[in-house]
Amino acid sequence: MFEKIYSPVQKIDLHPLSNLYVKRDDLIDPYISGNKWRKLKYILQKAKAEQKNHLVTFGGAYSNHLVATAAAAARSGLQATAFVRGEEVKNEMLLICSLYGMNLIFVDRESYKNKVDLYKQYFDSDDSTYFIDEGGASVEAVQGCSEIILELTETYDHIFVAAGTGTTAAGLLKGIQDAGLNTKLHVVPVLKGGSFIADEIARYTEISNHLILHTDYHFGGYAKTTPALLAFIKKFTKETGVLIDPVYTAKMFYAILDLHQQNQIRPTDKILAIHTGGLLGLLGMKDKFYFP
Ligand SMILES: *Cc1c(COP(=O)(O)O)cnc(C)c1O
């Protein structure tokens, strides 16, 4: 499933930015959210090389990573099991996971905290299983994400990406460093207190002056929104024709415009935003949007 990839760079018109490009990783696949595909690429190769045929992973009930793992497993002829945080629920994301054949085990929030224990409890004596951390965080994921940089045929002054665990950002930073580019990498954590992302990135690559962290665009925290963010999503989508998700990419695009307004980015600077996908996240928030 990893042979072909479709992720064009597209110029978009977002007033007043005149030099904004988007790397459309959201187009890689409708269900495997862009960066989750990148992250899984080498994880699956490793699992297969180790003769494993059963992926075991972890996530919340609205996790893009779970859907991506379920789809990737089904397309690679592998089994998949997910430990889902919290009480048993039904939603659109978990429906897609089950259609792809993923086995869902709901665990209370306390037990969920120790993932290695959970894994051992269920699969300790099972040689066929392969442990994938929450969100796919791993060296393999960083390597997969660094390939985004290799695909670029032009150079940019700034590259923007949203961060949850920071693994994707680490890959981009590594890619920029390995390629010897002057590009600044702007990382927008979507959680409150996002400065921990720098420590996460430091686990995989050296923190250099390429990296700029913008910790003030979390809009209240993970999966939290404000009326201003929801209004921004509607305006952005109508103006550009590109769908964005409320958990990650909307916060990143909002940050780009805001930093431009604060003159931290010059009008002529060439900007690349990584559209990491995640559009199913809209389904989890459909009640928040007002339909006139
Ligand atoms: C998971 C996800 C991210 C965050 O990726 P990390 O590597 O965890 O920082 C960003 N955007 C989307 C759409 C995602 O699904």
Automatic annotation (TrEMBL):
Keywords: Pyridoxal phosphate. One of its GO terms (molecular function) is D-cysteine desulfhydrase activity. Pfam families: PALP (PF00291). Its cofactor is pyridoxal 5'-phosphate. Residues 18-277 form the Tryptophan synthase beta chain-like PALP domain. The modification N6-(pyridoxal phosphate)lysine is found at K36. The active site is at S63. It comes from the Bacteria. Belongs to the ACC deaminase/D-cysteine desulfhydrase family. This is 1-aminocyclopropane-1-carboxylate deaminase.
